[in-house]
TrEMBL record:
GO terms for molecular function: flavin adenine dinucleotide binding; FMN binding; sulfite reductase (NADPH) activity. Transmembrane segments: none annotated. InterPro entries: CysJ-like_FAD-binding, FAD-bd_FR_type, Flavoprot_Pyr_Nucl_cyt_Rdtase, FNR_nucleotide-bd, NADPH_Cyt_P450_Rdtase_alpha, OxRdtase_FAD/NAD-bd, Riboflavin_synthase-like_b-brl. This is assimilatory sulfite reductase (NADPH). Pfam families: FAD_binding_1 (PF00667), NAD_binding_1 (PF00175).
Amino acid sequence: MPGQPGQQASQGQPAMPGQPGSAAASPFGFPFGTPFGNPFAAPAGGFVPGQGFPPGTGVPPAPGMAPGVYPHAPAFAAFQGAGAAMAMTPEAGAATAAPEAEPAVSAWTRNAPFTATLSTRQKITSRNAEKDVQHIEIDLEGSGIQYQPGDALGVWPVNAPALVSEILERHKLDGTETVKLADGSEATLRDALTHHADITQNTPTLVEQYAALSKLRPLQELVEDRKALDALLATTPPVGLFAEYPHPLPAQQLFSLFRPQSPRLYSIASAQDEVGDAVHLTVGVVHLRHHGQHYMGAASGYLGHLLEEDDDVRVFIEPNRNFRLPADDDTPIIMIGAGTGVAPFRAFMQQRGAAGATGKNWLIFGNQRFTDDFLYQAEWLQYRKSGLLTRADLAWSRQGEHKVYVQHKLQEAGADVWQWLQEGAHVYVCGDATRMARDVENALLDIIRTHGRLDEDDADDYLNTLREDRRYQRDVY
């Protein structure tokens, strides 16, 4: 979905297999023998392609929360859920569904989720990584749930007990107070805040209502200043608002400030033909510091740290018919993703492997650092060795003198991209809509203009034709 690597470089891994040589000799664009710890090698107790993580594998702690590691504004934007940690939704205006058989509609829905269990969780970024990415495996046995690569899993989060307790304490409440829920039923305030309210997301309405109820003049003046309000919303969760502008509210008023809880969507990182009655996710955990306290995203923290193995988790499938593999297994595909945007491409590779697909597969993946953030690297190397993965181009934005992103790798390989398009390749993009996906689209247009020798209007028409033919699909958030 979903935002990040695999084996931890700090565990001391053997050198890259093969002989030193030019970058061209390596399937991943760097010479064999490059002096990195080899994150491709699966250490004892590490991730094994096709098998997941061995039982009893320890989950390393989250990275240290030193101030400045997670810049407030971008971290809180994700904390608020505006595309939080790989939450994926079908792109507005995307192409219609591919002409392939879809599984029957599940009995389990957003309003009637299946109670599954967490079977495996493993951190797949290194101990030194700035990002905290967790590989999640959920057991669907007994559900009858069916899904396809490209679909999303809806997860109903449960709010962190520590966050609920802090909110109660700041309003001088003990949680036993009775409140009325949106459907007219009643619950204790603690239960309502834990299960029925979105207490991580700040909104203009929440701040305005709290300012009116508290009658705190400094807060009322802030609300009247749109720039000041936007700045507060970008950096301050609701609990931070209560800390900075203290004014205890009665139980019902407090509960009514929050929007109802909502599920988060994560791109599925597995193919059912490979994993059976299970579903895998790649979750980037959002971490935030405010008023000296550490917080996590509602769903990402729930999945990535709060749930224990065998705990219940309520889930449902959200089909995404606008992000589907080609119906013809001989068709080549180009997969472009950054961070946890690699999740659906893992599912694509599992599906193509299980189906014995003969079409070529090209991965263009980017993240911060090779040694810290190459998600599922052991699996990608295995796919490359087996021949299932035809080509891989990797971009590292925090390694070396210059920042390198996926769009740069795309442009460098422009002639080959154009050749693949002439061979009928389908192009898939997964990741951030406002930056990465936009830059990738601009790079594609430049490739079409340059190597197709088309003017700007004709290049736009060419890309639009790819969309209409379902050869250019995006899963962006």
